[in-house]
Amino acid sequence: MLIKSAKYIISSPDYKKCPKPDIPEFAFFGRSNVGKSSLINMLCNQKNLARISGSPGKTQLINHFEVTASPHASILQGEGPVLRWYLVDLPGYGFAKVSQRQRKNWEKMISDYIRKRENLLSLFLLIDSRHPPQKNDIDFINQLGDWKVPFCLVFTKTDKETQKTVSKNVNDFLSTMQETWYELPPHIITSALKKHGREKMLKFIESQIVEQAKR
Ligand code: GDP
Questions:
Q1: Ligand 1 atom 24: the closest Cα is on which residue?
Q2: Residue 84: enclosing H or E segment and its boundaries?
Q3: What distance in Å separates the CA atoms of residue 154 and residue 29, rounded to the nearest whole number?
Q4: What is the 3-state secondary structure (H, E, C) of 170-197?
Q5: Atom of ligand 1 nearest to the CA of 126
Q6: Which of 29, 43, 157, 191, when mutated, tests ligand 1's pocket best, judged by the most ligand atoms within 8 Å of its CB?
């Protein structure tokens, strides 16, 4: 898939106010500072796209971007059909200063969106590859399992540590999951800085769109 354009559409306080669910959607989620904005910008080949989500007033909202792209086959054959999908930037967890009430609102907004957004094909759950498995990431994953929400793990910032450390952290993470999961979800190793993992993510998105079109 070749990204042709990506533009900000709207920020919504809950899933009911999101754009009409008429094209496939992929959401990005993870603890704050995991590298979500950098990854979105890298994926869309834009410097400041996801900065919009971080601007005052938008950090606690569901941020929609519309992406247009050419499918892989048409890149090989010249002009072809255009794929349209929504990229959603969800506010991350782990904020230092939020009240109990803000936290509850945020939890409800996220869980409602994830469970009820009908065009959501997959959630990208971002995990910082520099750290060993974190309890709240695993807890959230188990929650996704209970909700039967399809997701893909994306390990971020892999240029920041040695390959050995990254491999150990990724393997430890997957092993921890294996304690409770029968089948592991797909995972992609990325670095926004080095643009690693971009093709794999785009391929994954395209395959999900194609699969859904067949259903
Ligand atoms: P967000 O809070 O999840 O949106 O995280 P950001 O994208 O703002 O990234 C947090 C910090 O990590 C920033 O200082 C980024 O420059 C840095 N960062 C993000 N991704 C990478 C990466 O792939 N490699 C390196 N070296 N730094 C990164």
A1: 157
A2: strand 83-89
A3: 10
A4: HHHHHHHHHCCCCCCCCEEECECCCCEC
A5: 3
A6: 157
User: How many angstroms is it from 33 CA to the middle of ligand 1?
Assistant: 6
Summarised one tens digit per residue, pLDDT across range 108-151 is: 999 999 999 999 999 999 999 999 999 989 999 999 999 999 99
d(CA 175, CA 122): 22
- State the residue range of the domain holding 195: 2-214
**What CATH number is associated with residue 36?**
3.40.50.300
- The answer to whether residues 35 and 79 touch, using CB atoms and an 8 Å cutoff, is no
**Number of domains making up the chain:** 1
**pLDDT at 197 > cutoff 90:** yes
Do the beta carbons of residue 34 and residue 92 sit within 8 Å? yes
Structure tokens at 146: 């209970």
Return the ligand 1 atom nearest residue 50 CA. Answer: 4
Our CA angle for 178, 191, 56, nearest 5°, is 100
Question: What are the tokens at 34?
Answer: 């995991």
- What number of residues does the chain have? 215
